[in-house]
Write a structure and sequence with these properties.
The structure is a single chain. By secondary structure, the protein is of the alpha+beta class. The chain has two domains: 160 residues, P-loop containing nucleotide triphosphate hydrolases (Rossmann fold); 102 residues, OB fold (Dihydrolipoamide Acetyltransferase, E2P) (Beta Barrel). The strands form four sheets. A six-stranded mixed sheet has the order 7-8-9-3-10-11, sandwiched between helices. Helix 4 crosses helix 5 and helix 5 runs parallel beside helix 6. The protein is globular. The mean pLDDT is 92.
Length: 342
Amino acid sequence: MVSDEVLSVRGALRRFEGGHRALCGVDLDIIPGQVTALLGPSGSGKSTLLRAIAGLEHLDDGTIRMGDTLWSGPGKHCPPEIRRVGLVFQDYALFPHMNALDNVAFGLKGADRKERALHQLKHAELAGKARNFPHELSGGEQQRVALARALAPEPSIILLDEPFSGLDRRLRGDVRRRTMTAIRKSGAAALLVTHDAEEALEAADQLALMQDGEIIQTGTPKDVWFNPVSADAARLVGDIDVAQGKVRSGKVESVFGDLPADQMEDGITVDILVRPEGVSVTQGEAFEVSGEDYAGAQVRLELKASDGSLWHAQTSATTGLQRGDRVGLGLDPDFVRIVEQG
């Protein structure tokens, strides 16, 4: 029976040799039936947190609980086999000498273990390949077998560490959607560790941003993308242009004109965060086209302001604009965020 309890991490601290802190007082709740994506650059502490939840790393301080059950804490460390955790890694870790059915059945107990394993393969739409060995399966099929094996024991939580990064980009989206659907149907809590912002935004119900061992923002993908708490948070989930300014009389002066900052204290220094998707090209002379990157029907323009600052706009590739052309720019306020500098 899949648990309906919340996995709760509080004040998680992990130090390595030399005093390096991989986790710096991390707080995180992982809700059953939802996918929480943990997004951050390499070395930010994502995999250390996943390993601590799995029981593969000890905490130096803080707690990890599944509901009321303490998994990790002062003087307490439940081993991985007691935690009922399902793990899916980048390399899938399938046994090459076992077929798909035996891989999924591995570790299951009871006379009906093969029947339960086949049930999971049917959910993964792989019942017809139950007798195939890993080398006879595509990368996407191997990933689905690995997920079926992780789900078969009905774990309390599924932990996925960069599980799609080894797949061909053309297949990745489809395999990811199938995987997330299967996890949500299972009712288990899930933590997806990734450095890919597009993957995190598409897959997650809850998004947690990690940097230098700390969770710097959590929320729905939409909220985190549109309302980043800092320039660092904004950069983790997408392209962003940043300028500095000061609040004066409820406004911030910028190359786009005065921007409203009604709720901010007068005189403070702020970052002006602008998503290229919210910048439109208009008639004018204030900006010079200084670069262009084509991506099919869209083009990302680099634009230089009179003060030398560089900005970007995403627009149709049919505009015909070239380097050296002069234009004006308009802003959609939904794509602009003003935050106090940390």
